[in-house]
Amino acid sequence: MRKVLVVGGGYAGFYTAWKLEKKLRTDEASVTLVDPRPYMTYQPFLPEVTAGSIEARHVAVSLRRHLPRTHLIVGSVVHIDHAHRLANVRPADGPEQELPYDTIVITAGAVTRTFPIPGVADDAIGIKYVEEAVATRDRLLTAFERAATLPPGPERRKLLTVTVVGGGFTGVEVFGEMLSLATALLKHYAELSVDELDFHLVELRDRILPEVAAEPARWVVRHLEKRGARVHLGASLVSAKNDHILLSDGTEYDNHVLVWVAGNQSNPVVARHTDLPVDRAGLFRVRTDLRIGTPDAAIPDAWAAGDNAAVPDLASDSPGGSFTVPNAQHAVRQGKRLAKNIVADLRGRKVKPYRHHSLGTVATLGLGKGIFQYRRIVIKGPLAWLMHRGYHVLAIPTWERKVRVALVWAAALFYGRDIVSLLSVQHPRAEFIAASLGARQRREAGEPTEPVAAGAPAHFPAQVPDPHELTGDHIAGSRSHPG
Ligand SMILES: Cc1cc2nc3c(=O)[nH]c(=O)nc-3n(C[C@H](O)[C@H](O)[C@H](O)COP(=O)(O)OP(=O)(O)OC[C@H]3O[C@@H](n4cnc5c(N)ncnc54)[C@H](O)[C@@H]3O)c2cc1C
């Protein structure tokens, strides 16, 4: 039996493994998938998670549940020695392992691109993972609670200030959704007014949304400005130190939530830790059939797709050719083509080239607002937003996830979105430690140490560890290692 190793269970990796499970005979090959997360993240829904319109766990597709025939290793591939068909895997626990394979599929995606701008590493957050979307949502919701207790003034305004750096597809979607959430929240906070919201979108180029034509992109800028936002075109972030934003156009202000979505860069394991060939951008050189190699010479048993590969775009009519855009539309289809080609290769059949004509671009700009473009057809507003939701609810893998997402949307039609912040889950032991410390102080003062909570069950005291065992290290540890 041949051993197929899939590195990364995101879009391309999940679909490759899913289709391999369906197509491979049980005695033909075994499939192992390695990913540090045991779930595939449906990234196009992250802006809606940030806005509280989608439940966080619903965008995470369990690999164990939906890939029952695939052996899952939760860990990171840190090195690939293709000459010896060996991958080094660093699991979540235990020592690094050497994993032998016969065929490798590398679909590890890209990582967020950052620059050494003062303050960014300390304060900014990306929107690539579900944890980031949830933390951003909770930070915004908590900011409203805090602002409502303050008198009007600079402190309160700072709490209601949001900056998104990056006016690409992701940046604009996240910005539009956060603005939509903030505006909707105002009706629950009589103390706060719309003039106090301060939303900034910062883009280095002189336009946003390079995925759509110039005029619809200008419309999006006007649309966001009409909703009270400021769009800084041709500007870059110079500093974000101490929550103070300085832009290259001279704009300065105090800021509370800083979201960094200024593009991707190649995955380090692809760019630096393999003997397989990569281009100058650190992406695998891939042929039209998705094998790694050049048009003249394929590297045997090595395949790649998605955001970590430069895949020739056979549907492009640009002279000299180009590469497929790094997006989900391609990653999904490349994953499916890859699985078919691997099976064909195993059975000694001909493999086929990957070709896909873009279905257009659709982006959410907040609840009930969107933009769609397919060639010269542009649709703006609620219809485009419905198209965004319709497309993505059909595109999220598995019926189980589609139903969960759709049910939450349906409930929101009647009850609105959920506006509770769970920021405190990042410090789950804080209350417990405070209670235990209180007990310790009471014991040291010779006072009774019974639990203070009224109605606490009789067995509760027995479950509380001896407060003397809670050292300063425990407390510091619990704060610096949330969860
Ligand atoms: C917020 C957001 C919104 C988006 N919206 C859209 C949209 O509306 N339409 C669209 O077409 N595209 C959209 N995209 C882009 C799209 O999600 C990506 O292009 C797509 O996910 C790429 O798929 P992939 O499989 O190459 O990488 P990913 O889906 O990123 O998967 C890579 C996987 O590899 C894993 N991994 C990384 N390193 C290692 C390692 N060393 N070892 C093992 N595993 C590893 C990661 O944990 C991850 O699970 C969006 C992206 C974002 C961030």
Could you give a short description of this structure?
This protein is an alpha/beta fold.
Q: Could you explain how this protein is built, in words?
A:
The C terminus is likely disordered. The radius of gyration is 25 Å and the shape is globular. The strands form seven sheets. Strands 7-6-5-2-1-8-20-19 form an eight-stranded mixed sheet. Strands 12-11-10-16 form a four-stranded parallel sheet. Strands 13-14-15 form a three-stranded antiparallel sheet. The chain has three domains: 191 residues, FAD/NAD(P)-binding domain, CATH 3.50.50.60; 143 residues, FAD/NAD(P)-binding domain (3-Layer(bba) Sandwich); 34 residues, no CATH class. By secondary structure, the chain is of the alpha/beta class. α1 runs parallel beside α10. Helices cover 34% and strands 23% of the residues. The protein is built from 15 helices and 24 strands. A hairpin with a 4-residue loop joins β19 and β20.
Write the layout of secondary structure elements.
Blueprint: E1 2-7, H1 11-23, E2 29-35, E3 39-41, H2 46-50, E4 60-62, H3 63-66, E5 71-81, E6 86-91, E7 97-100, E8 103-106, E9 110-112, H4 120-123, H5 130-148, H6 154-159, E10 161-165, H7 169-185, E11 198-203, H8 214-226, E12 230-233, E13 237-239, E14 244-247, E15 252-254, E16 257-260, E17 264-266, H9 268-272, E18 284-285, E19 291-293, E20 298-304, E21 309-310, H10 328-346, E22 361-366, E23 369-374, E24 377-380, H11 382-395, H12 399-415, H13 430-444, H14 460-463, H15 472-480
Helix pairs in contact: 1-10
The chain binds flavin-adenine dinucleotide.
The site of flavin-adenine dinucleotide has 33 residues, from helix 1, strand 2, helix 2, strand 5 and helix 10.
